[in-house]
Amino acid sequence: MIMYVFSAIGLFLLLLGVGLYKSWLVEAIAGFDAKKDNKEIAGKWVGTNIILMGTIILLSSIILLLLNIKTPLIVFSIFMGSVIIFSLRSALLYNKKVR
């Protein structure tokens, strides 16, 4: 059951990332300032990181579902690792890439 939850989270992050990448949801980025930041670059930078995060989570949960592995600790570790890595990457390099 928990694998379905992780799959849903991965799919949601993937769709959110696409929305950011296409610049539909750029105003949802924390710290986004329309006067200082380039909307296109900000959307692509943050969107790409969230797309990667969602893809990793979705693929790992689907692979573990197909292999019938019932250990949610593996998916949870992948989930937390990708969230931490891509969130830090997005936040720390935001000013360098966007402004």
Structure notes:
- By secondary structure, the protein is mostly helical.
- The protein has one domain.
- It is 75% helix and 0% strand.
- It contains four helices and no strands.
- It has helices at 2-21, 39-66, 72-92, 94-98.
- The longest helix has 28 residues, at 39-66.
- The radius of gyration is 15 Å and the shape is elongated.
- The N and C termini lie far apart (43 Å).
- The model has no long low-confidence stretch (mean pLDDT 83).
Helix/strand layout:
Elements (H helix, E strand, L loop, with lengths): L1 H20 L17 H28 L5 H21 L1 H5 L1
Helix pairs in contact: 1-2, 2-3
Classify the secondary structure makeup into a structural class: mainly alpha
Proportion of β residues? under 5%
* Alpha-carbon Rg, integer: 15 Å
Number of helices: 4
Percent helix, as a range, is over 70%
What number of domains?
1
Shape: elongated
Please give the alpha-carbon distance between the first and last residues. Answer: 43 Å
By DSSP, the count of extended strands is 0
Poorly predicted spans: none
Q: What is the H/E order?
A: HHHH
Overall mean pLDDT stands at: 83
Largest sheet: none
